[in-house]
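G., before I forget:
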Amino acid sequence: MKGTLIRFVLLLAASLVAPLCAHATGVFRAYLASYGSDANPGCSVSAPCRLLPAALAAVADGGEVWMLDSANYNAGTVSVSKSVSVLALPGQVGSIVAVAGGAALNIGGGLNVVLRNLVIVNNAANPGTDGIVVSGSSTVTVEQSVISVPNGTAISMAAGGVLSVDHTSIRDSNNGVRGAGNAVVDISHTKFANIPIYAVWLDGSTASTTVKAGVTDSTFSNVHIALFCWTQAGTATTRGTMTRSTVSNSVYGVASDVAAMGGIAECSAGMSMLDGVDTPFQQSGGTTGTQGNNLVRNGGPNGGTLTNVGSM
Amino acid sequence: MKRFAGAASLFAAASLMLPLAAHALSFRTYLASYGNDGNPCTVAAPCRLIPAALAQVLDGGEIWMLDSANFNGGTVVINKSVSILAIPGQIGSIAAVGSVPAIVVSPGMTVLLRNVSIATNANNPGTDGIQMTTGSLVVEDSAFGIGGAARAIDLTGLGSLAVTNVSFHDGTQGIHVAGGGTATIANSTFLNLTDVAVYADGSVASTTTEVSVSNCRFGSVNIGALASSAGGALRLFVTGSSFSGGMYGIGSQVTAGSPVVVTTVGTSSIFNMSIAGMFQAGTAVLETQNNNLVRGNALNSSGTLALSGSL
């Protein structure tokens, strides 16, 4: 009888400890749904949560958040402070809005974050600013998503890190993708449309930093500058290259500019088409290069000096 | 009369056996988050985990994942030729968990995986995504997120591998091919890998391993595509691909002996590598079509490049 009682007590203790341990480490995969509730513990598939902050609190570092159906999943800026993949199921729309003067997402430093199949837009009734702000040096991947934030920058890598953008549509935003600090930016199979300032902006405004970007298999339509390498700090470097891409009906295609304080700015293009661009290539103090195999038509003259960078 | 009774008995026996046989092996078996492995894996009564569906599917049959969920509890050993796919609009998750690989393809099988997501379990990490030796594996429209010191796909034998529209991110190696295997990789993306994304490995003597890469993208990986041998012959072809923001773009090297190692690169772009865009070492050949855009690397090339020309 005594042994049975001890076993019962141990079993009771184990049954209490196990959920606590699971809660402490977080779940591998947390779920969101339009019919969810943030009061649901663990954000399970059978009892999903409603908003992204609740799922981020429940998930383990390195885990996943799945949006099970189409809905909006935030009410204010979502701060991401753990490594995580956030995705909407195929066929669904996972919406995150920029609202009330803030960014839609703010990603901290030292993280690895994957965002897939999301729609990040501005709340017209209570506008926000940027789409995704990466405020520390993190690795961020954005895939198969749509970003439209008319009051801000779609994705801003403000303090270095690695950004990969793939199969994403960025439209109707002040700027498309901005890399600053020591950011490394890779963009492929992405569409930029209706960007009144810079579609891909390598921002060399911070001294002693190098910003790098590669753009491949992407399209730019009705943008002010498609690929812009810019420095205004004497010890800053910006290097960008575009291949197999199309720029159409825009003001500038590929531009390099070194402002008064100096620096190194080098942007080049190869195997690309620039159609109906007022100034296909612009050089203002930096180096603007061509591989010599771009198709340039229906536009105006180039500005500055164009350097043939050749092939290998 | 006796003969008729005998025939009736045989017919009754056959009618009893047929459902049993159909129940045991079906052309198509089904999985769902609401399934149960005690079910017959039919569309009306699906199973829950892949091993149950594999046990009930015919060799050469199909397994359909009807909704989005994780469909394994440990290593899935695929010991039949089979197609495993999540239906469009869903995600079929297979996790690498408990220090073992997510999937092992048994020798000689012909396997197709489509629309699956193979990731490591953050709470109890596994190792590789898929291991195979011989047979044939096709992977389409899928995603791998294998963290830690592991390979997303590891082919070590005479098998063949075809990968199309697949995303590999956040791990050590993407695709490793050794021991005379053949791999064709197209329209795929490799991101944030801490070692080699596509690795043609000639460590097995007296074998010829061939890997072709077309229309792929490599971002922030230490080495994009590498042919490296100390024994076996290697052929690596790279066309229409982009490499950006890693340490090395494409490498061709012989580390011991003098095996035939030839790497050919055309219509590709290599940007912003912190060490070298292309590198050649030993007796290996690295030939370019002279139409690649190689810019902004610490060294655009290291070693000797040969010209392959065009036809």
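The CA atoms of residues 266 and 289 of chain B lie 5 Å apart. The first strand of chain B starts at residue 26 and ends at 31.

More on Monday.
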